[in-house]
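Ticket #4471: structure output looks truncated?

Reporter: J.K.
Steps to reproduce: submitted the chain below (208 residues) through the standard prediction queue, then opened the result file.
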Amino acid sequence: MIASASTNTERPALKGARTNTKDGYGQRGEEADKPGRIKVLPDISDLTPPLLVFGYGNPSRGDDALGPLLIGRLEALGLPNVELLTDFQLQIEHALDLQSRDRVLFVDASVSCARPYAFSRLNACKDASFTSHVMSPMALLHAYQNLYGLPPPAYLLQIRGERFELGEPLSPKATASLDASFALVKGLCSGLDLIAWEKFVNHEQALS
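Returned output as attached by the reporter:
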């Protein structure tokens, strides 16, 4: 009897698809161990939630905590298709977080906007903060544009604050503004329809 030649039963990877022999985020799966099985992973853009809500500010400085506090309230809702991010300030590294988004909402405290909040449409703009360690949302969009091309549609929610001294608690007026802002953002997170978002714009920001 003549022994038949051994053959490789593994199928070639699909063109343009990423393959991996690991299941999920690093755990080997049983299916990956079977001969001839190839795990085809979706493109990274398919894994990125379409909406990013980024609240920034210093929680230790009174009403400067408004951005992170709003993110905390949103986390409790378990919103689908939404990624929540918080930090002390915006930096150029955050341009990476804007990739593959359909929409970005920045949330910050403001001492000068109308009470309870100002909701603005943003354009990329190189301002004085572009060369500093603390960037404005417009400067971050400009950095993204230089690195990756056209940035996703972006908006800024400024929540009115009153006191920003180190160690101060949230002021009563800021708490009321936070409540109103939370109600707004809950509605915005329920859909990504651009026309619906535009209806809430009450302040133009860096349109030139």
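Triage note (M.O.): checked the attachment and the full token line is present. DSSP finds six helices and eight strands in the chain.
Status: closed, working as intended.
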